[in-house]
Amino acid sequence: MESRIPLPALRNPMSRPSDPTPVTANSGRENPRADQKATLANAFTIDVEDYYHVSALASAIPRDTWGDRESRVSASTERILGMLEERSIKGTFFVLGWVANHVPQLVKRIAALGHEVACHGYSHELIYRQTPSVFAEETQRSKSLLEDLSGQSVTGYRAASFSITPRSRWALDTLIELGFEYDSSIFPVRHDRYGMPGAAREPGYVLAPSGGRIVEFPMSTASFGPLRVPVSGGGYFRLLPYWFTRHGLRQINRGGLPFTFYLHPWEIDAEQPRVDAGVVSRFRHYTNLSKCEGRLRRLLGEFHFTTMRNVLRAQGLLSI
Ligand SMILES: [Zn+2]
Question: How far apart are CA 143 and CA 201, in angstroms?
Answer without folding.
Answer: 27
